[in-house]
Design goal:
Chain B: Keywords: Cell membrane, Ion transport, Membrane, Sodium, Sodium transport, Symport, Transmembrane, Transmembrane helix, Transport. The complex is a heterodimer. Chain A is mainly α. Helix content of chain A is 67%, strand content 0%. Chain A is rod-shaped, with a radius of gyration of 14 Å. Classes of the chains: A mainly alpha, B mainly alpha. The interface between A and B is medium-sized, with 27 and 33 residues.
């Protein structure tokens, strides 16, 4: 059971890390149309 | 009594939202993508509502009940991994200043932008028609199971009540779908949380559930084969490693390129909103899936074996009616019913628009008035609804597995079309045809021959064929890939995009004019 739950938690962590990296890339692009705002999660 | 009362109240609510929706003038673009203006709050709501269907709420507890914790890896972790991959699609597909409005339009713009009528678009629409028809069929099956539990009717008769809902909800537009989806989602979260509390209390706590799972050998259905001791706590469960990996990969890679998810990523007002929408949805979905896991696993303690003749899809309504307070049970089951109806309606609309706009109107280019087009689309949706009900009389597969098959098919057909199309400039129309034709054919053949891992085999075959086709095929024109790689695009690309999108704009304008004149006459 622990293995199953660990795999699920890993996918959740991957989702949040992947999303954060993509938000960072949008910020780095400085393209306003893509969502650049000067803050990572805004 | 509680069940009938809550159900009648909900039916009145549906009629009210649909009648109110008739007063609003909405365009096709508003319905499909919200005009690319969707904010974070609504986006999170629609994403969570899209995940909440009969497969997740009824199918997953069913597999947890019959196969144990392995279902957490196959379906729950599979869908969460898919949700993690969707922002990678959003990061590119939402870049253009004028994004596509639908998945087939994205395919047209990315692969055959210089053609007025794209054959690839027609092919994609045909596959979508088949896939979404199966999804609709599964929603009708789920609706029938819950409706027969609530009313005590026979399942074969209960599924026909779906047509009554279809008549009401098909006249509602985006507003009614948004309101009913939001209410359904709140009801389901409330229902599954209260249901899980009731199951946990009735089962004597989590340690008792764990002990039962470790010791039970009771067959899933009375008279069936006994389970091996401890199999329900094994990470591979009753599936075996190969089959479980196949289910996980189909659910994750397939869901990430499914046309309805790609279309969802076209609606937000920017790339960042699309990405954050999926991140927040993941956190909210934990609140739905933890109670579902408790209900599915806890049910084995309360109902060791299902009555003969029932499938595992019945476990959720069965355990809720037996062990939850009647009001909690009524709210949960009515929400399940409503989720099935609203998802089925939106899937039917996908089927209808694919068949009418992307197949029929792409092949037969004769001009018809917008009023006639709308009438034809409505008849198409109703006819498909009747077919879905008839096909549900004897359901061939379980709900969650049905979704896995369709996601596997979509993944085999579209994985490289979407990801290589967005991240590799050299991906061309020959590569797209190769992925769709080889991926679909190999997936079907492997499935028919009983391969353990049909999705992986199809994906590997599709990858090789894509590489060969890209190598020998014509180079992709600048107009095809430029919007996904550059922030500013050339004037020739702008012209090509506006030419393709003009047809839609004209139809929308005609629709708005027609609706406006009708209101003026009625006024």
């Amino acid at each position: 059971m622990a293995i199953a739950l660990l795999i699920w938690v890993a996918t959740i962590a991957f989702s949040l890390i992947c999303g954060t990296i993509l938000c960072y890339k949008v910020e780095k692009s400085k393209v306003k149309r893509w969502g650049y705002s000067g803050k990572l999660f805004k | 009594m509680w069940y009938i009362a809550v159900f009648a109240f909900y039916l009145l609510f549906i009629v009210w939202t649909c009648l109110k929706s008739l007063k609003n003038v909405e365009s096709m673009s508003d319905f499909t993508t919200g005009g690319h203006r969707m904010g974070l709050f609504i986006g999170v709501g629609t994403s969570v509502a899209t995940w909440v269907s009969v497969a997740s709420v009824m199918g997953v507890p069913g597999y947890l009940y019959s196969s144990g914790v392995a279902a957490i890896i196959g379906w729950v972790a599979g869908w969460f991994f898919g949700t993690a991959l969707i922002p990678i699609v959003a990061y590119k597909v939402r870049r253009p200043e004028s994004p596509a409005k639908t998945f087939p339009e994205f395919i047209h713009l990315r692969y055959e932008p210089l053609k007025k009528n794209s054959q690839l678009r027609t092919l994609v629409a045909a596959l979508m028609l088949v896939g979404y028809f199966v999804f609709t069929h599964l929603q009708v099956v789920g609706f029938g199971i819950v409706f027969s539990t609530i009313t005590g009717m026979k399942y074969e008769i209960a599924i026909f009540a779906f047509l009554v809902f279809l008549l009401f909800t098909s006249i509602g537009g985006f507003w009614s779908v948004a309101v009913t989806d939001t209410v359904n989602t709140i009801l389901i979260i409330l229902g599954v949380v209260l249901g899980a509390v009731a199951v946990l209390a009735a089962a004597g706590g989590f340690s008792n559930i764990y002990d039962t799972l470790a010791a039970t050998t009771a067959p899933t259905v009375v008279g069936g084969e006994s389970l091996s001791k401890g199999v329900l706590l094994s990470p591979v469960g009753t599936f075996g490693l190969g089959a479980l990996f196949s289910i996980f990969i189909s659910n994750s890679l397939g869901a990430a390129v499914s046309p309805h998810w790609v279309a969802r990523m076209l609606a937000p007002k920017s790339i960042k909103v699309a990405i954050m929408q999926m991140m927040i949805s993941v956190v909210l979905l934990i609140a739905i899936f933890v109670p579902l896991i408790i209900i599915g696993l806890g049910a084995k303690t309360l109902i060791p074996s299902l009555p003969a003749g029932q499938t595992t899809d019945y476990i959720m309504p069965l355990v809720i009616t037996e062990y939850a307070h009647p009001l909690v049970g009524a709210l949960t089951l009515v929400a399940l019913c409503a989720a099935a109806v609203s998802t089925a309606n939106s899937m039917l609309l996908h089927c209808g628009t694919s068949l009418y706009y992307d197949i029929y109107k792409n092949i037969f280019t004769s001009k018809t008035t917008e009023e006639n087009s709308k009438k034809h689309l409505r008849y198409t949706v109703l006819a498909l609804g009747v077919l879905a009900v008839v096909s549900a009389i004897k359901p061939p597969v379980l709900l969650a597995m049905g979704f896995t098959y369709v996601y596997g098919g979509f993944g085999a057909a579209f994985f490289f079309v979407v990801y290589l199309g967005l991240y590799w400039k050299r991906m061309n129309s020959a590569g797209a045809y190769a992925n769709i034709i080889v991926g679909t054919a190999v997936y079907i053949i492997a499935k028919v021959l009983g391969a353990t891992n049909p999705f992986i085999i199809a994906l590997a075959a599709a990858f090789v064929s894509v590489l060969i086709a890209v190598k020998i095929g014509k180079k992709a024109p600048l107009e095809a890939y430029e919007p996904y790689f550059e922030s500013e695009i050339s004037s020739s690309t702008k012209k090509v995009i506006s030419t393709i999108q003009d047809d839609y704009a004209q139809e929308e304008n005609m629709q708005k004019t027609a609706s406006g004149s009708k209101e003026a006459v009625e006024g």
